[in-house]
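Hey,

Quick one before I head out. I ran the complex with iron/sulfur cluster overnight. Inputs first:
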Amino acid sequence: MSDPRFTAKRAERTEIPRPKRGEGQWALGYTEPLNKNEQSKKDDSPLNVRDRILHTYSKRGFDSIDPADLRGRFRWMGLYTQRKPGIDGGKTAILEEEELDDRYFMLRVRSDGKLLPAAAVRALGTIGVDFARDTADVTDRENIQYHWIRIEDVPAIWERLDEAGLHSLEACGDSPRPFLGSPVAGVAKDEIIDGTSALAEIERRYIGNPDFANFPRKFKTALTGHPSHDVSPETNDIAFVGTVHPEHGPGFDVWVGGGLSTNPMLAQKMGVWIPLEQVPDVWEGVASIFRDYGYRRLRSRARLKFLVADWGIAKFREVLENEYLGTELVTLESPASPVGHRDHVGVHEQQDGKRYVGVAPIAGRVSGTVLVQLADLIEQYGVAGARLTPYQKIVLIGVEPEVVDELLDRLDEIGLSARPSNWRQNTMACTGIEFCKLAIVDTKNRARDLVAELEKRFPDLDTPITVNVNGCPNACARTQVADIGLKGQLVMHEGEQVEGFQVHLGGATGLQANFGRKLRAHKVTSAGLDDYVTVVVTHYLADREDGESFTTWVAR
Ligand code: SF4
């Protein structure tokens, strides 16, 4: 339901015609729930499920959980049921959700771009060891994701997270999802502006705030003051991107309406300059537009990108300024998008002369044990802490130059390489069929094997080629913006349906931002993936012109 407080806040309503057929937009008076998700959120605030988990479900066990909480409101606490083991991808679309449900949960813990000191990394590791069968993946939204969580253990896990200054609140659900912050905020020598305080303020004001806990769907935030645009701003609902005004100095441009999945759209640049202190207010304004004007009738149209596409960026800015901010923003041409790596892998000098060191697990797969070992190294070598990255990497911050070489060797010993091959550095994978109920194919193990094979076949590749492996069309590992984007689906092979991928070629972010071409003929079985990538890469290497990138070659 539309809350009268929100209406009162608007300064002045921009003239927006009421569509004949309601899209469920609260601001236009369509406040009655039009689908079961909207009904569930109206029946009870999803934030209330926390108390039931702590005081009822964790004590009485899995079977005591109300189905509306289990498959709906639990997400606001970062909890999803995981996929029952042994159900193949062909059953994903035909089974009911409850038939796919395991009695264990996936738990997502948000880091929101924070620096994680040794104690926090250790807490994250021991939770994996003690409660999650040693799982602990690094996701491309800077989360740690566990599996095999029992409902009985959730209170103890939350207690440990709380002690470490972490939480899982609104890590999933129709809510302000985990923020992507620059992994090198406050330390990179070439930083334009440090946005750490703004992200912390957004978290303080709005996470767990009932006024911002019922969006039409998820709402993804990214913020960076680094010139590499290291938070994939093109693919977020709202992104703040560092820019310099000739008179006012460093600040942020605002991009809105990015998102991938089945109707991919790149974020549109507002072309403004806002100071650091104004970031939380602008976040509130954009989030409020999404809440009030976002489409709620069809889940498939309920992301901010559809509203931005329909309105256009000029009208979106007008509504933001007139109805929500009550002030005009300063116009400034958007900063040029960069080329090159955004993942910070390797050793780099900081502003203070120390080093930051980016390391690459394989396709984000870590474990509780590895995180505990990492915490040991952070302590032993006097490192300030670690940050997670949107590319499934980990960056150690504040390393003394004289310990770098020894530390790199120790990191290699625990499977975290700061000197990875192209394939290891540039391959990402989503959760996939191992645990995800929407998955059609395996991803993490497939990506690991692909990396190992390509390292043998192309050991000296001289130019980066990115490979993003996704288990279904939802594109959690950003199918459409990789050089080789893989979308899990069943494909025909010798008269039978088997696990495979639709291939998208030549996608990119940054200067060459565009979606990979979906080539209908390019469908490959999972078993044939190594050979398929080999053929494509061999062809590119033989055919490219001097300095020609994979993206440009595909576009020819
Ligand atoms: Fe699951 Fe599909 Fe997302 Fe992969 S892309 S994590 S399979 S929903």
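Residues 430-432, 436, 438-439, 470-472, 474-476 surround iron/sulfur cluster (CB under 6 Å).

Talk tomorrow,
K.
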